[in-house]
Write a structure and sequence with these properties.
This protein has 13 helices and 18 strands. With 429 residues, the chain is α+β, with helices and mostly antiparallel strands. Helix 4 packs across helix 6 and helix 4 crosses helix 13 (401-409). It is elongated and about 85 Å long. The two termini are 36 Å apart.
């Protein structure tokens, strides 16, 4: 019977066949041990001289790391083994003997590992990180699906910017220019006017010449947009969403977080309500901590870390200076110099994981802002239409998948939180 390593607990005492790759081999005389991986986990396979045929036993000196094989054997409980079970080997069928594997147990530099990313994914830690990523995405979809949101796909090719023109990837599009999307938000707003509550999920692109551990040129965002929703309700949704994802991963990623040696006690504190502070209050925190910060600037990585150290869970910073926020951000009715935006900063120095706010819903005001930002009007005509036909107060946010995974896993660089990262200097593998 063919099965997977993760399902061995269901076959104690039974004969099964596992398909996978050699992870490691060690020997003690007439017994040798093979650690097999199959993508679902690792298992120790015990090869005993008298329990298998001669050709199988002699494979010890032939098999190499990452050789592809099928193993037939009997499952037996073994508390000392990984996963609590091992396989008593009867027969090994070889599909391919792998060449010498380039990634060894010694330390490798980041550039070497990224150049071999297609192979590095097979390592235990990288495998664990990307399984957590899978669960973050699953939990996110479940959260919105269970709360009455409709998934709406936004286009990747667009004619307009969302987050400013300086970070656009421009491409030739027949007889005109087009851009890789910076965000699905604008189309998400249009969809919210049709469906009430929606979410967009997909890749986004920023041509930022940044080499920090928090930036990629291609990353994934989930972006809910809600009609009849103000800033306060928007923050409610954001904290419920993030808390749900964290609790889900704590329950369903125990083995992966153990492999990564993650201190889950810090994640367990991420339960609503999250602290909410204004931009001005955040600046006061920086001043008290002796940080040299210019009022009216955006927070850098060091600033975000300093602010987050005041709290034991994510903190939401709202009401920002309008000059540093996007053209579509609605202003505070009590202070036109403030925009109704919000950023959620993760603890432990992992930075911004959520950015959003209330959108400008007045046609003339939005048109004026587009002009003030020196953006072309024509590509935004459809967006302006939303303010002419049943405009309502509406809000939304974007959660970055890679930064969220990095925080949950305790991974210091986002390049490990996506299967094949894209940066300024890397477009392959």
């Amino acid at each position: 019977m063919n099965t997977t390593i993760s399902e061995l607990k269901n076959y104690d005492g039974k004969n099964v066949i596992l398909n996978g790759w050699v992870y490691n081999i060690r020997s003690i005389g007439k017994i040798w041990f093979l650690i097999l991986r199959d993508g679902s986990g690792l298992v120790q396979c015990v090869v005993v001289d008298k329990e298998t045929d001669k050709s199988t036993f002699e494979l010890e000196n032939i098999l190499t790391q990452e050789s592809s094989i099928s193993i037939e054997g009997v499952v037996r409980a073994e508390p000392r083994s990984v996963g609590g079970y091992e396989l008593g080997v009867k027969k090994i069928t070889v599909h391919q003997i792998a060449d010498e594997y380039p990634i060894s147990h010694k330390e490798h530099g980041a550039d070497f590992l990224m150049s071999n990313r297609h192979l590095w994914l097979r390592s235990k830690n990288q495998n664990a990180i990307l399984k957590v990523r899978h669960q973050v995405i699953k939990a996110t979809r479940d959260f919105f699906d269970d709360n009455g949101f409709t998934l709406m796909d936004s286009p990747i090719l667009t004619a307009n910017s969302v987050e400013g023109t300086s970070t656009l990837f421009e491409i030739d599009y027949f007889d005109r220019s087009a851009y890789l999307t910076q965000s699905g938000q604008l189309y998400g707003e249009a969809s919210a006017m049709a469906f009430g509550k929606i979410y967009v999920f997909g890749p986004t692109f920023r041509a930022e010449k940044s080499k920090t551990r928090r930036h990629l040129t291609e990353f994934w965002m989930v972006e809910p947009e809600m009609a009849y929703c103000d800033l306060d309700e928007n923050m409610d949704w954001a904290e419920k969403h993030v808390s749900y994802v964290i609790q889900w991963c704590l329950e369903h990623c125990k083995e992966e977080l153990k492999i990564l040696e993650r201190d889950t006690g810090k994640l367990e504190k991420s339960i609503p309500p999250f602290p909410r502070i204004t931009y001005d209050e955040a600046v006061d925190i920086l001043k008290k901590r002796g940080v040299d910060f210019k009022y009216g600037s955006d927070f850098g990585a060091a600033d975000e870390t300093a602010i987050s150290e005041e709290f034991d869970r994510p903190v939401m910073i709202h009401r920002w200076p309008s000059e540093i926020k996007a053209f579509y951000m609605k202003r505070d009715t009590e202070n036109d110099k403030l925009a109704l935006g919000v950023d959620m900063i993760a603890p432990e120095g992992f930075g911004e994981i959520v950015g959003g706010g209330q959108r400008e819903d007045d046609h003339d005001t939005l048109l004026s802002r587009i002009k003030d930002h020196k953006l072309p009007i024509d590509p935004f005509q459809w967006y302006l239409d939303l303010r002419k036909y049943g405009s309502v107060p509406h809000s939304g946010y974007g959660l970055g998948i890679e930064r969220t995974v990095g925080w949950i896993c305790g991974t210091k660089h986002v390049r490990e939180t996506i299967p094949y990262p894209r940066t300024m200097y890397r477009i392959e593998p």
